[in-house]
Design goal:
4 helices, two-stranded antiparallel ribbon, alpha+beta, binds the ligand CCCCCc1ccc(-c2ccc(S(=O)(=O)CCO)cc2)cc1[C@H]1C[C@H]1c1ccccn1, 12 strands
């Protein structure tokens, strides 16, 4: 994979996104506004516009029991599961396999009235990184999705408006080993998930419409995804 033309960008953006994701909501300077809270899931956003277009950065923190960060990232990354948990995606296509852990996707999203339909072209990279802050702590797994321009599929050439996204799903696994020496079971696992996204909708959409869509869709999206992973993993051997 290191020979691929996109590799330098993939490596740089992945490391940047991981450091950004690890900054806690508290010490990340810019003011984060808590806009949704359901159980362990807390969703924050910052209101930002570029040329009058809403590109509110979003950050979600969630804690789920019974799965590892490796499992969460695998179900997020692997295209074969995508349509099972992504309710707003109409079609997802792998345009290129850059490496075993790096794919190039074309995704067409369902139209969200009254805006026009969107599509996205992005690379998706999954990586295990040692937790440099805590050497013997659990590893961190991360998936980064980042839009790219590809000449073969110019933006806005078909029926869809091309959106631009940078997404980072970062997972840290905590294992609470059973005291009686029994082997680790799923209820000894806790996974701390940080999901960061910045979506530029591409064409103009009324800020009020966009913010209403984000407020409705993002909590649904993360809850549906994490419940899907818990459900898929519960009777399978643990993937550490
Ligand atoms: C007028 C609406 C324009 C923007 C609509 C839109 C499109 C894609 C996306 C999006 C694209 C990718 C990802 S992902 O995390 O990389 C997973 C892979 O699918 C996630 C969300 C978001 C939104 C914004 C609605 C918002 C919304 C939020 C969560 C789900 C659906 N819609």
């Amino acid at each position: 994979a290191s020979a691929h033309r996109l590799w330098p960008e993939i490596d740089r953006v992945t490391m940047e996104q991981m450091h950004y994701a690890r900054m806690s909501v508290e010490d990340s300077g810019g003011v984060w506004q808590l806009f949704a809270e359901e159980g362990e899931m807390k969703m924050y956003r910052r209101e930002e516009e570029v040329n009058g277009m809403v590109i509110d950065p979003l950050r979600a923190c969630h804690v789920v029991k019974g799965v590892t960060g490796h499992e969460v990232c695998e179900y997020f990354f692997n295209p074969q599961y995508r349509l099972e948990w992504e309710a707003t995606v109409e079609t997802t296509t792998v345009l290129e396999k850059i490496a075993d852990d790096t794919l190039l996707f074309l995704q067409v999203h369902k139209r969200i009235w009254p805006a026009s339909q969107r599509d996205a072209v992005f690379w998706s990279h999954m990586r295990r990184v040692p937790d440099d802050k805590d050497q013997d702590g659990p590893d961190i797994w991360v998936v980064v999705n980042n839009s790219v321009d590809i000449p073969d599929l110019p933006a806005n050439s078909g029926k869809c408006v091309r959106l631009f996204l940078t997404v980072c799903l970062m997972c840290q696994t905590f294992i609470d080993p059973p005291t009686n020496g029994a082997k680790v079971s799923r209820n000894d696992l806790t996974c701390k998930i940080t999901y960061c996204s910045v979506v530029n909708p591409g064409g103009w959409a009324p800020p009020s419409v966009l913010r209403a869509v984000y407020k409705r869709e993002y909590p649904k999206f993360l809850k549906r995804f994490t419940n899907y992973v818990i459900d898929q993993c519960q009777d399978k051997p643990i993937l550490f």
